Amino acid sequence: MDILFLDANILFAAAYRENAGLTCLWKLAGAHLVTSGYAYEEALRNLTEAVQRRRLNQLMKRVARVVLKVEVSSLPVGLPLAEKDRPILDAAIGTGATHLLTLDERHFGRLYGIVCGGVLILHPREYMRTRR
Predict the structure, then answer these.
(1) CATH number at residue 67
(2) What is the domain range of residue 127?
(3) Model-level pTM?
């Protein structure tokens, strides 16, 4: 079973408009969806409409939200990742996720296809392609 850690931008994009394409992740057999409180709060903060926030909360009913306090980062020294994105990768590793799915090509793009701490970092389109 794949354990998919969803970055804030995945949560945001899935809730932004009704019937967003990313909601296909919620329908996958053999996939367990997880995220962190940090990612959830970021997505919620960036959704401006009440209907979007309601959609996010509906989606979250099928996502395990982990509360993970990382005292010491498990990330490799020199990893080219913005400070604000480190808690996302740390949480993905800490939850035992098999994949970190993110739309953040600017910060995570150079890490797409790389396994870091046992977690394969992918754009959701690439994850879906590999499942077929």
Answers:
(1) 3.40.50.1010
(2) 2-131
(3) 0.92
